[in-house]
Amino acid sequence: MDGRITYQVSDNSISGSVGAMLLDTGNLVLWDESSEAVLWQSFDDPSDTFLPGVKLGYSRKTGKLWALASWNSSTDPSPGDFSLRMDSRSPDEVFILKGNMMYWTTGRWDIDRQAFSLIPEMMLSTSFNFSFINNRNESYFTYSPTSLVGNATTRFVMDLSG
């Protein structure tokens, strides 16, 4: 054994070296060093943690879903009972599901107030900039910290209880 670890993230064949880097944003990126093409990034497959820049939603072009899933238990990171996701049938709303049953909803995105209708506190936030993108290619929700937060690390976590 030469100390290398092999992990398949794609069925695509790569000739050459693959590089990996953990960015300051928390995004782990694997790329083809010869073409500098991104092969995979952790922000495309979020787990239970919503970081600034992560998308919650879906791609209309590829069908890719960006969703959070709770852990199965405090020591088992496999997907648990709860998920946070969008649905193409209601592309301007985020849901927490317990299994396949709706557990909670944000309500619809209010473009004038820049907040979800059932979370009016979003309008009061001086710590975060919230964005909702809905176009022909994708529909997603994301956030970024404001200058008041500075370099502090922020995250939202889908915990075991949803």
From TrEMBL:
Question: Is Glycoprotein among this UniProt entry's keywords?
Answer: yes
Query: Where are the bilayer-spanning segments?
Result: none
Q: Which keywords has UniProt assigned to this entry?
A: Disulfide bond, Glycoprotein, Signal
Q: Where is the Bulb-type lectin domain?
A: 7-71
Q: Does the keyword field hold Lipid biosynthesis?
A: no
Q: Which InterPro entries match?
A: Bulb-type_lectin_dom (IPR001480), Bulb-type_lectin_dom_sf (IPR036426)
Top-level division of the source organism's lineage:
Eukaryota
Name this polypeptide is given: G-type lectin S-receptor-like serine/threonine-protein kinase At2g19130
Source organism per entry reads Rhodamnia argentea
Q: Which gene encodes it?
A: LOC125313775
